[in-house]
Design a protein that fits this description.
499 residues, alpha/beta, TIM Barrel, 4 domains, eight-stranded parallel beta barrel, three-stranded antiparallel beta sheet, binds 3-methyl-2-oxobutanoic acid, binds zinc ion
Length: 499
């Protein structure tokens, strides 16, 4: 019988720390529910002391999700631990995740402290957290660069103090797989009482080694892995959940398995990407658009003769089925509802009706509606609650003419119009928009992305702006890229106007 590797999902904590990927509580609950259906063992729901929003999300996720353990992060500080415990009060199965930096660099520069003092703080924090819950995970931040002998002393002490899980993060993504595997083995071999706790991996992808390091951890004694959907996370991200799940499923000889229902991987990946406005790179392992697209003649010939020639994973194992994708203007409510449910979305009847209306509008301008389009439509609800709305937009451009745009906005029920020129229709539209908004907004980043292929495709626009020293992110999606650009700008404006 294979040994189970526990999947600790931190999409809603480490993954959500990425600028521009923040989710509101309703969206976090939506993600938590699909993670539960996916079969994760632990959901790290947030860092309650960090903001009232995070605190509230941990409370609401604890109420909404009952199967996995709900975990809340804290520093090794009593007031953090109090807040984490308070946020977990409705959780059926709860864990406090507390910890402190243990590398010499963290000890000296972050804490201006000593190894002995850090060890004492770690032990105190674990004992304090154990007063609230039976399940306490300790993280030794920057364990990847921590001296093994000292790390073993810390791990031994926190297990004695009551830690049930010890997390060994490669916080900076620096370790080589051999080195990280050896670190886990060192702890297994040298820590007295190690059998009383689960060792957890937590790897970052700064050098592209997060998955390899996590696998090295598993092969050397770790029984929990900390991962995110699509590998989202700060900088280069965290270990991707789908990669570990599919590695262990495909390599049966490792003797390890997970409880992940792999057929749900693809829809969950798309849902998270969409809610976080974080595109999945086309060549991303397992869930990228091209992950199963064989384009060379030799490969296509081989796959047609027998898929196993070039495919090591059956696409159906991750929930990709060929005949599923397309809806058209003739598709009814039932087809739309079914396809949304496959994508992990179960709207109320009223919400389904409004998505259906938007679906028909889109189907008028685009022959085939695919999953990506549906996710954009299902996520469009957000803009309806905003103060600033686009009333109309007309932009003209072409060869030999100066592009010009006129725009109408509805700001809290009041109508405003303006017209402007620019070096292209997007520039003209944004210039017109600026005349109404009248704030010093600087566009820092502006990306236009198609969703699938073809000239009738929807364009997605991600925008980052700076206003009064703060950065705001906006998103727009439309078959008209000028409108999508304006929507993204308005999305940014709504964020600082409603702040
Ligand atoms: O990368 C890291 O060290 C972390 C800890 C807070 C667990 O995310
Ligand atoms: Zn991390």
């Amino acid at each position: 019988m294979d040994k189970k590797i526990f999947i600790f999902d931190t999409t809603l904590r480490d993954g959500e720390q990425v600028p521009g990927c923040q989710l509101n509580t309703v969206e976090k609950i939506q993600v938590a529910k699909v993670l539960e259906a996916l079969g994760v063992d632990v959901i790290e729901a947030g860092f309650p002391i960090s903001s009232p929003g995070d605190f509230n999300s941990v409370i609401e996720i604890s109420k909404a999700v009952k199967e996995p353990v709900i975990c809340a992060l804290s520093r090794a500080v009593e007031k953090d631990i109090d807040k984490a415990a308070e946020a977990l009060k409705f959780a059926e199965r709860k864990r406090i995740h507390t910890g402190i930096g243990t590398s010499d660099s963290h000890i000296k520069y972050k804490f201006n402290s000593t190894r002995e003092e850090i060890l004492e703080t770690a032990v105190k924090a674990v004992k304090y957290a154990r007063k609230y819950v039976d399940d306490v995970e300790f993280y030794a931040e920057d364990a990847g660069r921590t001296d093994n002998e000292y790390l073993a002393r810390v791990v031994e002490a926190v297990i004695k103090a009551g830690a049930t899980v010890v997390n060994i993060p490669d916080t900076t993504g620096y370790c080589l797989p051999e080195e990280y595997g050896a670190k886990i083995k060192y702890l297994c071999d040298h820590v007295e009482g190690i059998e009383n706790a689960i060792i957890s991996t937590h790897c970052h992808n700064d050098l592209g080694m997060a998955t390899a390091n996590t696998m090295a951890g598993i092969m050397n004694g770790a029984r929990q892995v900390e991962v995110t959907v699509n590998g989202v996370g700060e900088r280069a991200g965290n270990t991707a959940l789908e990669e570990i799940a599919m590695i262990l499923k495909s390599h049966k000889n490792t003797g390890y398995c997970t409880g992940i229902r792999t057929q749900k991987i693809y829809p969950v990946s798309r849902m998270v990407s969409n809610l976080m406005n974080m595109p999945v790179q086309p060549n991303k392992a397992i869930v990228g658009r091209n992950a199963f697209a064989h384009s060379s003649g030799i490969h296509q010939d081989g796959v047609l003769k027998n898929a196993s020639t070039y495919e090591i994973i059956d696409p159906r194992d991750i929930g990709l089925d060929d005949n599923s994708i397309v809806l058209t203007a003739r598709s009814g409510h039932a087809a739309l509802k079914y396809r949304l449910s496959v994508l992990g979305i179960t709207p109320s009847p009223e919400r389904l009706e409004s998505i259906y209306k938007e679906f028909l509008k889109l189907a008028d301008s685009k022959k085939e509606i695919n999953d990506e389009d549906l996710l954009v439509l299902a996520g469009a609800e957000r803009s309806e609650k905003c103060n600033v709305k686009l009333d109309f937009l007309q932009a003209t451009s072409g060869s030999g003419v100066r592009p010009v745009a006129s725009i109408g906005l509805d700001i809290a029920g009041e109508k405003f119009t303006a017209a402007a020129t620019g070096n292209g229709p997007v520039d003209a539209s944004i210039n017109a928009l600026k005349q109404i908004v009248k704030r010093k907004v600087i566009i820092k980043e502006f990306t236009i992305q198609n969703i699938t292929k073809g000239s009738d495709d929807m364009g997605k626009v991600h925008m980052q702006v700076e206003y009064e020293g703060h950065e705001y992110y906006g998103f727009g999606a439309n078959t008209d890229i000028v409108t999508a650009s304006v929507e993204a700008y308005i999305d940014c404006v709504n964020k600082f106007i409603t702040k």
